[in-house]
Input
Amino acid sequence: MTSSPSPSFLLLSLFTLFSLLFSAYSSEEIENTPLTITLPLTPKFAREPSTDPMVFLQQLASASKSRAHLLKYGKTSPPLKTPLYPMEYGGHTIPYCRMGPMYISLPMHQLYYFSQRRPFFEPQLSTSLTNLSCNNPKCNTGCLRCKANSKNCPQVCTYYLQYGTGAEAGYYLLEDLHFPKKTIRNFIVGCTTIGLSESYTDAMAGFGRSMFSLPVQMKVKKFAYCLNSHYFDNTRNSSRLIFDYRDGDTKGLSYTPFLKNPPDSPDYYYLNVKNLMLGNKILPIPSKYLAPGSNATGGLIIDSGFSYGYMAGPVYKIVTNELKKQMSKYRRSHAAEEEIGLGPCYNFTGRKIEIPDLIYHFAGGATMVVPGKRYFKFDTEPTGLGCFPVDTDDAKNLEFTPGPSIILGNYMQVNQYIEYDLKNNRFGFREQKC
Output
């Protein structure tokens, strides 16, 4: 772009793990490719958090349920580094942008309903921007208002997306995306002209497996992040999002391969989990919940846009029943469970807190150990309340519901270096203070 674009466009390639993926792809050459690009990553609240601890936990539960419903029932329409910030609603952001699974979009029109005023990108100020035509091969929606096979349809490529905390519609643009020492030509970005959202971020960036996501459009071999603890929510303490053009192993990482996605769920990152343990106890979870079926039921995905995570009813029951056994020395807070909609919850007031590790054993021998104090949500003052905040189905008696049976959310990824190796189709991680 030759004009002075808004900050939300310049910093577009920023991370909030999980609501959008691109619907078009650029095959143009990337100029001046550095070895890596690094951006800051910050946590961000989707709405102004309540100062009441119980209401705050309710907000987190509500956000998790919305995201779970979207993932399971909705349809998906030297590295370069950036800061990555933890936010109170349970996600992480890069400046002006939050992460999702699908594509990148920017608010570009005042017909957009937000909980606070946001900056708008003004495409008319750019001399390098063009509309993406509906009959362009990069458009996946086609020409909806023209006759079939029409070669002269004047319509632009449009989109509509519904996600956990809102919805938006608009059209696609081709634009130049500039990084220090790097320019991506004909980068596809969504121009959102109408929408509804409570988000406090300025844009959405997709990082999923689709060929239209930000990492794929940038043609990186892998991308990585290290998420700060949510104790630093809404502060200037940031970690980094890294776009890496180098191949090979990263020192100290354990790797496990990505699974082939079910046809109905092409955009998510499925992992081959062999079993789960709680403390030293192997959980008797049937294999049909651990591996995705051809109809997109079952399996485990990793989603950094999900606050705590999700377990299908039967899996949740197995995990929480064992958790209750191992935590029987603490007093349950049934009132908190009823009010928040999550649980089990315990009152730790005046007690030493000992919560068993949650351990994921993956194919290839990789083992992820999530300490109890990382996957529990605490309200240390004034009640000393702690809850198991993983979401589940309302219909807990169903054997299967659509979508994955387990979602590994970002709270379980905190203080771990997480790498998505796209070239070698694998997932890597190691313990690291972020």
Notes: Residues 1-31, 95-99, 109-116 have pLDDT under 50 and may be disordered.
